[in-house]
Design brief:
single chain; about 140 residues; alpha+beta; 2 domains; five-stranded antiparallel sheet; four-stranded antiparallel sheet; DUF551 domain-containing protein
Length: about 140
């Protein structure tokens, strides 16, 4: 699944009505011109207040005339929650170290730990994603 597929899935039935106002992080932007929002608001789409409160994040950004909103399920999409998707050799880590990895074929998205060093993985898996394991800083005293 691609980032765009996840955005479309998150908006569900509302996607076709707002797709021209959605940025690459899933935010739907509404511009306030003469005290009127020009792009579809949540109310224009027929969302109830309860649905909005439970499923939507939003607020004013950059200036008082711009309001952005998106489904809460897209929180973290900017960096894929820290996971790197491997689609080519260039996507492999740039440095040796320990990583959590996902092998969608064998382990059905179970995270396990692997070491990446000298240009290859130490585990023989079909790795589709990795996430660096940050080592803590040494104690000061």
């Amino acid at each position: 699944m691609t980032k765009q597929d996840k955005i479309k899935e998150a908006y569900g039935e509302y996607y076709d009505k707002v797709k021209n106002n959605i940025d690459d992080s899933g935010w739907c932007t509404m511009i306030n011109k003469d005290n009127v929002f020009v792009s579809p608001t949540c109310l224009d789409l027929g969302m109830t207040r309860e649905y909005y409160d439970n499923n939507i994040e939003g607020g004013y950004f950059s200036d008082s005339n711009t309001h952005k909103w998106r489904p809460k399920s897209l929180i973290g999409i900017e960096n894929n929650n820290g996971w790197v998707k491997i689609e080519s050799e260039d996507d492999n880590p740039k440095y040796d170290g320990n990583y959590f990895v996902i092998d969608n074929d064998s382990y059905k998205s179970i995270s396990i730990q692997c070491y990446y060093g000298n240009g290859s993985w130490d585990c023989h898996l079909n790795i589709t994603h990795y996430h660096p394991i940050a080592l803590p800083k040494p104690p000061i005293y």
